[in-house]
Every structure is written in structure tokens, then in C-alpha cells.
Design brief:
With 538 residues, the chain is α/β, with parallel strands linked by helices. Helices cover 48% and strands 11% of the residues. The longest helix has 31 residues, at 504-534. Residues 347-352 have low confidence and may be disordered. The structure holds flavin mononucleotide.
Length: 538
């Protein structure tokens, strides 16, 4: 299969739309082995049609103009799939692409074709098997209602219903690195569409994903207006820090309102400017003066924000490297992506999860152990049977919660301990301390891995899977995981030595009370530590 992308954007390789066309071609090639060629119309020598009809009369099938168009026509005729990729220009195709379209006249025969209601010319070549997809982005918030001229033209020269379309509004967002999560999700749908197009055609759910706005209209338009950096009334150039603050504020997600207004103060140290964003129940306000008392203050040079915006460094890495300092309420930072994530919750096209499946739960890793410790304390055999029952039931619980390696290891370990206890109840003296040691080992060893144990279970409170990319979140969890690991390793040791001694009755109390204290410490530490870390800047 030969795929030909005709990139009609005057921006050449910098085209927004080209990203979509490439994603579609990628998806298509995944499903059907293909050879891809890209034509950048901007870089070709394509002159305007002279209207001389020489290609029909004097040199049939050949244009008299000595430019690159002969080569383009050759590629066009040979292609199995043509992807017409262009940004919408004045509700039509960009000028040079129109030149290319006009110059296709040699592909047609001069005679009239009576089969078309409004008149047409038959093709010089048999291109009935050729497929076409129009892929385009436009600058308005929606593609809807903006493509009538385009489809009217292609209906005539390709035939109504003989081509597929992917039209997407808010096209300029595809070049904004900060919004990549949303635009990548869209591109995943385009790729999926390409895959499906190679098979039985684009599916309804994919079409629905492609039809979704990248951002709600008011969010997009506020971002777009701010992006020009020009004041609406005076036409004066705006301070880039103010532009940046407004663009960021435009992404405010009202659903994240935490029951009270928050005032985020942005201090740009390199240019000595300061702005505030007031996050309210029904919207936001950007203040240039008459400042309020801030609830959170971020102190950093504008250049750091610009590097983050350009994708040179992630916000989390910048925080880890202490390139900015945060004062006041740190909760806003912990939920940053949610607070400034308006409209950024697209349905995933790339990685479908089992319907109704929830993220990992602490319940899954703790339940087998707690059952074993609690139940065997009362009755060795009954406790062992109960623990085996719980481990077996974990299979049902895992249908609802995403299983981690720790959940699986926990269930297997408790199963083994319970079986050993059933085989010989007198082993309890060794099995109980061993269970604590294994539990402590599980936590401690996980500290050596990229994602420590507690991170899997607490990420749901910190933006889900994305938290696993946040070094400060991982560092906080590594410390906590280690604390729990050490506690249980020590618990295993003292349980081993104190069992069977007069101090044994105190064991139950100690082994239950200490985790409660560590639990309280954990709840405090996971908020305190990131704030403490971020309050200092180099
Ligand atoms: C001269 C010009 C005319 C445009 N006309 C329209 C238009 O009529 N409707 C629209 O929604 N966007 C319009 N746009 C915006 C582009 O369609 C939008 O920026 C698109 O993403 C560009 O795609 P590209 O990067 O692939 O060229 C226009 C842009 C320019 C430069």
C-alpha cells in the first residue's frame, strides 16, 4: 500500500495538521503494511494553471509548465491512499494547495461525463480503487460549520461519499507543549482512526473522540486571546509574564474549587513582576494590582516557566531541582494538574482499561496480612483457613481494583504461611515473626524500585498514574515506604525474641499501636514533606 501525504500547509513540516496526518498514516501502517511518502507543497515549484488546455489538446495528459507538478501527478496516480493535509484558510484550502488541485487537470479527460448532475470530466486513469482522506485543523474552537466550502469542492472532484474526513478545531494547540497531554490524546484517536480505516472503517466511538472539542470553548478562546500578547483595547504589547499568567489561568478547572477562594501569586523574579490569579467558584480573575493576601505564592524566574512551557523541563523536575519556591498552602501544588486542567480529561483511545476497574487499593495489599495476624491470634487453624479464604477471594477483588505486584506477592505469601500453619500449628511461634519480616521486606525492597510501594496506592489522591512521573511524589513515598518497611522488619525481630517470654502479652498492644502512630505520621508527612521541600529554592 502506498500512502501519499500531501502536506498543503504553508508552514511545511511545522504544520499542526501534519501531526494528525502522520498519526493517521501510522495507525493505517500498523494495520496494513505500507510505504509512506510526504509531499510538502510549500517547498515545491508549482505554478498557477495557465488555463490553456494544452494538457487536453496539444500534449494529452501532460502540462506545458516545466515545474514540479509532473512528479506530483505521477505520485498521485500511483498512491493507494492519499491524505490531504492542510489548515483551513478562509474556510477553504491554502492557496498553494489550490494551485496543486487546479493543476490536476491533466489527470482528467476533456470529454463531458453525463453521469454527474452538475457536469464533470472522466478520469484519464482508472483510480477507482484509490482512497482519500481529508485531514485538517482550523483556528476556531470547532470545525463544525467551517468546512462547507472544502467539502463542496472535494465532493465535486473526488465524488460525494468517496472520501473520509477528520476536521479538528483549535488546531494551534497542537504546537503547545504544555497541552500535549490533551493533544496527544486526540492524536491517539486519529491513529486509532487510521488503524480502523485500514480495516472495516472508522468506528463510532473513535468518531465520537475525534468530534470532541480539545477544550471547552470559553477555555480555548481565553487561551487564544491571551496568546497574542496584545491588549484588546489599546493594541499595546503585553508583558510576557502577564500573558503567561493569563494563559495558565484560562485552564482553571472550576470543578476543582475547594470550598474557598484561593489566591495564587506568581512572582517572576527575573523581571520583577508579580500577578495574582484568584480562583473562585464560578471562574477566575487575573490581578495586575490591588493585590489580595495570597494563599499560595510561587517565586521563580519567568524563564523557568518558559522552559516548562516549551517542554524543556517538567514542572515537577523544576521543583525537584528547586528552580522555584512555594510558600503558603501547598495543596494547590499537589493538585496542580486538576486545578489547571480544564477540559483535559479525554476518553483514552490508546490504553482501554477494563470497564469499571478502579486504581490500586491499599485494601488489596493489606487484607491478606491483617486477616492472618488478627484471625490466627484467636485460633491458629480457623485463622489459617480464613486467611486462605481471603487470599482466594482476592481474585474477585482484583476484578474491581487494578492489581499490583505487591498485591499478588502478599496473597501468595499469606497463602504459604497459612498452609504451613495448617500443616503444623506449633510453627506459629516462627510463622508470626516471619510474616512481619516478609511484610517489612516487601516494603523495604520496593524502595529500591522506581515506584515504591505506597506510591501505587496513594497516587489516586494525586492525579492518578501521572503522579508516578512526579519525582517529589516518589521521593515522599520512598521515605514513607522505608519507614513502614523498617517498622515491620523490627516488629518481626522483636516478635521473634519476645514470643514465649513474659513480655509476650504486650506484643499485641505494641504491634497494633505502633502502626497507628506511623499511620498518623504518614498522613502528616505526605503533606508536610513536599511543602517543606518546595519552600526552599537554590
Ligand atoms: C491566512 C489564514 C487564514 C485562516 N483562515 C481560517 C479560517 O477561515 N477558519 C479557521 O477556523 N481558521 C483559519 N485559520 C487558522 C488555521 O486554520 C489554523 O491555524 C490551522 O491549525 C493551521 O494549520 P497548519 O498548521 O496545518 O497550517 C487561518 C490561518 C491563516 C494564517
Amino acid at each position: 500500500m502506498k500512502i501519499l501525504i500531501i502536506n498543503g500547509s504553508p508552514k511545511g513540516k511545522q504544520s499542526n495538521t501534519l501531526k494528525l496526518a502522520r498519526a493517521f498514516a501510522d495507525g493505517f501502517s500498523e494495520a496494513c503494511s505500507s510505504e509512506l511518502e510526504e509531499l510538502t507543497v510549500r517547498d515545491l515549484d508549482i505554478r498557477p494553471c495557465l488555463g490553456c488546455f494544452s494538457c487536453w489538446r496539444k500534449t494529452p495528459g501532460k502540462c506545458v509548465l516545466p515545474d514540479d507538478m509532473a512528479g506530483v501527478l505521477e505520485k498521485l496516480v500511483r498512491a493507494d491512499l492519499v491524505l490531504w493535509s492542510f489548515g483551513l484558510y478562509y474556510f477553504s484550502v491554502p492557496g498553494k494547495l489550490k494551485l496543486l488541485i487546479d493543476r490536476q487537470l491533466p489527470l482528467a479527460l476533456p470529454f463531458m461525463d453525463a453521469s454527474s448532475a452538475s457536469g464533470s470530466h472522466p478520469s484519464r486513469f482508472d483510480l477507482r480503487g484509490q482512497r482519500h482522506v481529508l485531514i485538517s485543523t482550523c483556528g476556531f474552537f470547532t470545525a463544525e460549520g467551517n468546512y462547507q466550502s472544502v467539502t463542496a469542492m472535494f465532493d465535486h472532484f473526488l465524488g460525494k461519499g468517496r472520501y473520509e474526513t477528520i476536521f479538528c478545531g483549535q488546531g494551534e494547540l497542537f504546537r503547545v507543549p504544555e497541552l500535549r497531554e490533551r493533544t496527544d490524546a486526540y492524536l491517539a484517536f486519529v491513529k486509532k482512526a487510521g488503524r480502523e480505516y485500514a480495516g472495516n472503517g472508522i468506528q463510532e466511538d473513535t468518531r465520537a473522540g475525534l468530534g470532541e472539542l480539545l477544550y471547552p470553548r470559553e477555555v480555548f478562546e481565553a487561551m487564544a486571546d491571551a496568546s497574542w500578547g496584545i491588549e484588546k483595547e489599546s493594541g499595546q504589547k503585553e508583558d510576557p509574564a502577564y500573558v503567561f499568567t493569563r494563559q495558565m489561568a484560562a485552564l482553571y478547572n472550576r470543578a476543582s474549587y475547594a470550598g474557598r477562594d484561593r489566591v495564587l501569586q506568581m512572582d517572576y523574579t527575573d523581571i520583577g513582576k508579580c500577578y495574582q490569579v484568584v480562583l473562585k467558584k464560578d471562574g477566575y480573575e487575573v490581578l495586575k494590582e490591588n493585590f489580595l493576601t495570597f494563599t499560595t505564592r510561587i517565586v521563580t524566574p519567568l524563564t523557568v516557566w518558559q522552559d516548562i512551557a516549551a517542554g524543556k523541563i517538567s514542572g515537577q523536575d523544576a521543583m525537584m531541582r528547586r528552580l522555584y519556591r512555594v510558600e503558603g498552602d501547598f495543596d494547590l501544588m499537589l493538585h496542580w494538574d486538576e486545578v489547571f486542567g480544564a477540559g483535559s480529561s479525554p476518553k483514552e483511545a490508546a490504553k482501554p482499561r477494563r470497564a469499571g476497574e478502579k486504581g490500586p487499593s491499599f485494601l488489596c495489599v493489606l487484607l491478606p496480612w491483617i486477616t492472618f495476624w488478627a484471625a490466627t491470634a484467636f485460633d491458629r487453624s480457623v485463622g489459617a483457613y480464613l486467611s486462605i479464604g481471603v487470599c482466594a477471594a482476592m481474585g474477585i477483588i482484583f476484578l474491581r481494583y487494578r492489581k499490583t505486584l505487591y498485591d499478588a506477592v502478599s496473597a501468595a505469601a499469606v497463602l504459604g504461611l497459612s498452609a504451613a500453619l495448617l500443616a503444623d500449628p506449633s510453627l506459629y511461634r516462627f510463622l508470626l515473626p516471619t510474616s512481619y519480616l516478609l511484610f517489612g521486606l516487601l516494603w523495604s525492597v520496593s524502595c529500591l524500585l522506581r515506584v515504591p510501594l505506597t506510591a501505587w496506592y496513594s497516587m489516586k489522591d494525586y492525579n492518578g498514574d501521572k503522579a508516578l512521573e512526579n519525582p517529589l511524589f516518589l521521593r515522599t513515598n520512598r521515605i514513607l515506604t522505608l519507614a513502614w518497611g523498617v517498622l515491620y522488619l523490627l516488629t518481626g525481630l522483636w516478635t521473634f525474641f519476645l514470643m514465649g517470654t513474659p513480655a509476650a502479652p504486650f506484643l499485641t498492644v505494641i504491634n497494633n499501636i505502633l502502626p497507628v502512630f506511623l499511620g498518623l505520621f504518614t498522613a502528616w508527612f505526605q503533606r508536610w514533606y513536599p511543602a517543606h521541600y518546595a519552600a526552599k529554592a537554590f
